[in-house]
Amino acid sequence: MQTITLYYREGSSDKVYQVSLEPRADQFVVNFAFGRRGSTLQTGTKTPSPVDYETASRLFTRLVKEKQAKGYSPGEAGTPYAHTDKAVQVAGIAPQLLNPIEAEEASRLVSDPA
Question: Going from the N-terminus, what domains does the chain have, and what CATH number goes with each?
Answer without folding.
Answer: 2-69 (2.20.140)
